[in-house]
Amino acid sequence: MLVNLQEVMSYAEKNRCAIGAFNTPNLESILAVLKNAETYKVPVIIAHAQVHESVMPLETIGPIMVLCAQKANVPVCVHLDHGESLEYIEKALELGFTSAMYDGSKLSFEENVENTLKAVKMVRKFGAGIEAEIGVMASSTEGSSEGTAGGKSIYTDPEVAQKFVELTKVDALAASFGTVHGIYTEKPNLDFARIERIKELTKVPLVMHGGSGVSREDYITSIEKGIRKINYYTYMAREGAFAAKDLVNSKDGVLFHDIVTAAVEAMRKDTENAMKVFYNIP
User: In the chain, what percentage of residues exceed pLDDT 70?
Assistant: First the structure.
């Protein structure tokens, strides 16, 4: 069933868990994620990042995401990830998305607040939820939605985050505390005290970006400190690619649908492992 961000965040707060937010730029990734959510009967977020527009246009994948969410037997929020323009966010909402992230993290505080307020006003007209961001994450991968490859993170200041939330009234806040978009080249050093303080001051659900590749222990501690949404994509996509490569190299006569089936199952297994930690599933 299609629900908004507020509903899945309410579930996360009540159950002291994190909702998995998976970028799904194709049908195969949607199927992998929703199969796990339905198996374990947990709410989930499927997302489309503006940076993936060249991979799969919003106009193409958006209606498919919304339809799959409507047909699912668990609550599914359809989310626009890292919307950098208000026009792109509005396009997603018109397609039926129930949540959007306005990413003004590269702007000045004043500009970020100004544009976030516009985004808040926009999503409320559609009954949708809104996430925003303070602080900038580095990226280990070219083409990431934030930062630059090898760029330096700007950690979120707790007091600035408090002021931002008070001014904008967003439903969730993405905070930078040591994670990185893309593939981790070394173990991240996460600032848990920072995230705990931000949660204490803002009192809103907090979001971990760059969630792929974080250790089980760090996931658990992050959730204990207030993380209620974990964005996950790179490692599931990599597992799909590995499975496709292995199949093609293993025998002759492989057809495209064989590759797709192998990739979906690999992504399902990878996201299953992540979701078990996010939702504290035995």
Answer: 90
Q: Taking a C-beta distance cutoff of 8 angstroms, is the pair 21, 45 a contact?
A: yes
Let me know: does 177 contact 194? Beta carbons within 8 Å.
yes
pLDDT in tens, 54-74: 999 999 999 999 999 999 999
Please give the positions annotated as active site: 81
Q: Give me the CATH code for the 2-234 domain, please.
A: 3.20.20.70
Q: Report d(CA 105, CA 273) in Å as an integer.
A: 30
Q: List the one residue out of 214, 117, 146, 132 whose CA is nearest residue 175.
A: 132
- Give CA–CA dist 65/52, Å, rounded: 14
Sorted by where each begins, the domain ranges of the chain are 2-234
Contact 243, 263 (CB under 8 A): yes
The 10s digit of each residue's pLDDT in 193-221 is 999 999 999 999 999 998 877 899 999 99
Cβ–Cβ under 8 Å, residues 123 and 90: no
- What angle do the packed helices 86-94 and 58-71 form, to 10 degrees? 40
Distances (CA, A) of 169 to 3, 190, 202: 20, 26, 10
273: left (phi over 0), alpha (psi -120 to 50) or beta: alpha
Q: Are 102 and 145 in contact (CB under 8 A)?
A: no
